Amino acid sequence: MRRACFVIVLGCAAASGCFLARGDRAPATSVARSLAPVQQAEGTCLEYVILERPLGDRFLDRDLWATARPVGAPETQVLLSENGLRVGVLAGTLPSKFQTLLESDSESPLGRRLTFANRKEEVLPTSGPHEQSEFGLLADLAGRRTTVVLKQTRCGVLVRPEPLPDQRVRVTCEPQIQHGVKREWLRPSADGTELVKHEGVPLAPYPALAFDVSLGRNEYLLIGCRSDQPDTIGAALFGVQANGHPRQRVLAVRAHQVSPGGASELPPISATARRPSIAAEAGRPR
């Protein structure tokens, strides 16, 4: 049995392409390759997995959160809850069911590890593509709930890890939804002297629902939704359909610092040994 150290990518991303493409990539060019061993760059390493079960599953919807430590100030916790989101940290001895789901071929899709030596942030895809996402949004506890309708959506969570002096890693998270099709627009240049043409797919960030958490080497950040709040951004981010049946997902994230030349403690993951999630398979053309 492989260890509960993981790097998993969403089946929906595998089936439908990368989430939040930032423009077309430049064509590949030939490069000179060194024969010296590859040295791991200093920075942070992040691994993540999407766990997927039927909507209202007892463990994923309730039992898992009973052992998780709440994240954020009380006001942040209430605001996230009002938007159908759950956030917590697992530390110490992990629930056996959680470990089983991490190793499951059918309850979690394929994946990879992300390093942050040369980049500051990345978006972890959580669901999509969807023809339309409609949900109520409460951006402020003192404000009013508004209705958001977006078409052709892909949902995810932007993560920005930062190393801390005690070998812990602070991870800042923000829900984001990509919607529509690629388009062009003009915006001021960095120095403000001219307008520069940009192209990309429109993106709806939700900074009011951002939060950060400090993770130790063997702690897991959990982000998910509440099954009894179907008309929220939480359901849009973590709700999927498989063969006409609703399912829910939980994003589990682990992060640690890496040193130059340091050997990884994680075993290699064979991409051919696992298969996409049920929801991803259901979305494939027959």
Structure description:
The strands form 3 sheets. Strands 1, 2, 3, 4, 12, 13 and 14 form a 7-stranded antiparallel β-sheet that branches. Strands 5, 6, 7, 10 and 11 form a 5-stranded antiparallel β-sheet that branches. The protein has a two-stranded antiparallel ribbon with strand order 8-9. It has one domain (11-16, 43-177, 207-282). It has 6 helices and 14 strands. Helices cover 15% and strands 39% of the residues. Residues 1-18, 20-40, 262-274 and 281-286 have low confidence and may be disordered. The relative contact order is 0.25. A hairpin with an 8-residue loop joins strand 5 and strand 6 (146-163). With 286 residues, the protein is mainly beta. Residues 1-21 form the signal peptide. It comes from Gemmata algarum. Residues 260-286 are annotated as: Disordered. Keywords: Signal. This is DUF1583 domain-containing protein.
